[in-house]
């Protein structure tokens, strides 16, 4: 029998240790590790019957659902590659991505059934009611031959094709190997004490690497329990925090911000939470302090799809002392900041953040030129993010390198300016862009607050250098942000014209 050395064996290996322990909870249903292992085997066998072979791509479209995790382990088990795609993208972009991957099979959730089937797809599997030529997902998990899947899987094999957000260009497929994903889990566990009795909640989307790589896969790796909500409604999610006694978790800043606006925020019992990680976009000091006030240890981290995604995390003892920092790198990750000529930056000097480790991607799918641009000959991943490492080694993510502009003969990163604006109690959100060469701050005022352009500029004048000061403040109802809360600066710039 071939040796499965990849992540497709995780459920089976956990089932050997604790078959009766609960692995997944979704609505009124739950699956033990023994049941999960059996379902993964069934899906793996049925994928092979649908013609999926080693190296083939299987697409996923839809909201978070247990079927995604079963499919992830099953495709890994047969040596295939799972390719989740953001179902909120324009249908033409979805088709372009799946066609680029030549996906043989696509599995869609009930909320994605209206997305047209790309021409490359031979079989479409539907979670829920299926019609026409669609295959019901229930057919995949129905017990079939229960024997092992005889496929040699190795750590260097590609397992997951995540894609970049596409906010600054066409989405790129990020090739993550079984080794990348496994080392990502080990790195997370090197700084967060996840236990077999931990319970996490999957609120970040699975089609992002952060949705699985920061809390879900580490908890499953350790034999804990993953709660997969049926709704993204804040009140529903807060109810699950209390009902399921969530202990660890991850959420993008926009999701965590939405919780604070819920009427249930002030009454929800969060006493079971030991650690909650946030990242994916800059986190305001105001949001961090709101969570600290509710007794929730909210820790900011940093990662990116190309690093599977975890890179670094702010340690709990330094959470208040270093508010705004992304912390220090995990055990098997190295980071540096470099100047445009490649030389290393001094402490507190802003440069491009570069990352190296066994979690770093194999490359971009069908993009050899982009791969060579991102990964240098020494294995350093050039992130495109501007950052500073302070004299204690803590990282401060400043902005995207490409978003910097010149003012008064100096390079200015709009993220530095936005952080100062964000300290004003009346500012709920802010974005800075240049319009006709002039920096302008677009501000969303916090509910129940009032302020003026004069007041905000006076506030910032004592905290920013003259060349960093924006020339004007424009008040808006909201800022354009991605599904993980990243400011879509190009759309803000378009609105300024």
Report on the structure:
The chain is of the alpha/beta class. The chain contains 15 helices and 26 strands. A hairpin with a 2-residue loop joins strand 24 and strand 25 (438-445). Helix 1 (10-17) packs antiparallel against helix 2 and helix 2 crosses helix 3. The longest helix is centred in the N-terminal third of the chain and has 17 residues, at 33-49. The chain starts with 9 loop residues before the first helix and ends with a helix. 49% of the residues are buried. The mean pLDDT is 93.
Identify the overall geometry: globular
Strand neighbour order, sheet with most strands: 2-1-11-10-12-13-14-15-16
List how many beta strands DSSP finds. Answer: 26
Fraction in beta strands: 15-25%
Report the biggest beta sheet as strand number plus sense, adding barrel if it closes.
9 strands, mixed
**Average residue pLDDT:** 93
Q: What is the CA–CA distance across the termini?
A: 64 Å
Structural class by SSE content: alpha/beta
Q: What portion of residues is helical?
A: 25-40%
Query: What are the segments in which pLDDT stays under 50 over at least 5 consecutive residues?
Result: none
Radius of gyration: 23 Å
Please give the count of helices.
15
């Amino acid at each position: 029998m071939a040796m499965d050395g990849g992540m497709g064996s995780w459920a089976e290996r956990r089932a050997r240790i604790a078959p009766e322990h609960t692995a997944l909870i979704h609505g009124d249903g739950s699956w033990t590790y023994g049941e999960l292992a059996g379902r993964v085997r069934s899906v793996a066998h049925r994928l092979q019957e649908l013609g999926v072979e080693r190296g083939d791509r299987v697409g996923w479209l839809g909201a978070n659902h247990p079927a995604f995790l079963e499919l992830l382990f099953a495709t890994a088990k047969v040596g295939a590659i799972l390719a989740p795609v953001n179902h909120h993208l324009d249908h033409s972009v979805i088709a372009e991505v799946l066609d680029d991957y030549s996906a043989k099979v696509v599995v869609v959730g009930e909320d994605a059934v209206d997305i047209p089937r790309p021409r490359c797809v031979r079989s479409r599997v539907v979670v829920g009611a299926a019609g026409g030529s669609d295959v019901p997902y229930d057919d995949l998990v129905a017990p079939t031959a229960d024997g092992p899947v005889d496929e040699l899987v190795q750590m260097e094999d590609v397992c997951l094709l995540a894609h970049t957000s596409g906010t600054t260009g066409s989405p790129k497929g990020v090739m993550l190997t079984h080794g990348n994903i496994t080392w990502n889990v080990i790195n997370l566990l090197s700084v967060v004490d996840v236990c077999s009795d931990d319970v996490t909640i999957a609120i970040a989307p699975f089609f992002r690497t952060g949705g699985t790589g920061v809390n879900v896969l580490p908890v499953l790796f350790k034999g804990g329990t993953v709660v997969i909500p049926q709704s993204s409604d804040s009140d529903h999610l807060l109810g699950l925090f209390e009902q399921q006694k969530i202990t660890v978790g991850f959420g993008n800043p926009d999701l965590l911000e939405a919780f604070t606006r819920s009427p249930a925020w002030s009454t929800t019992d969060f006493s079971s939470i030991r650690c909650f990680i946030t990242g994916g976009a800059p986190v305001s000091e105001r949001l961090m302090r709101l969570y600290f006030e509710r007794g929730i240890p909210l820790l900011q981290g940093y990662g990116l799809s190309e690093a599977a995604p975890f890179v670094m995390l702010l340690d709990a003892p330094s959470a208040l002392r270093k508010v705004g920092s992304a912390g220090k790198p995990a055990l098997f990750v190295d980071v540096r900041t470099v100047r445009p000529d490649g030389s290393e930056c001094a402490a507190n000097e802003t440069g491009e953040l570069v990352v190296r480790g066994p979690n770093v991607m194999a490359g971009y799918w069908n993009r050899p030129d982009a791969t060579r641009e991102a990964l240098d000959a020494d294995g350093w991943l050039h992130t495109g993010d501007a950052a500073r490492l302070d004299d204690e080694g803590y990282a401060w993510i400043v902005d995207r390198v490409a978003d910097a502009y010149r003012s008064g003969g100096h390079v200015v990163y709009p993220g530095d300016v936005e952080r100062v604006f964000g300290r004003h109690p009346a500012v709920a959100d802010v974005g800075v862009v240049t319009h006709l060469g002039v920096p302008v701050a677009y501000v969303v005022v916090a509910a129940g607050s009032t302020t003026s352009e004069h007041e905000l500029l006076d506030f910032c004048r004592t905290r920013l250098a003259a060349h960093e000061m924006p020339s004007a403040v424009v008040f808006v109802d909201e800022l354009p942000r991605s599904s993980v809360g990243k400011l879509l600066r190009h759309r803000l710039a378009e609105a300024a014209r």
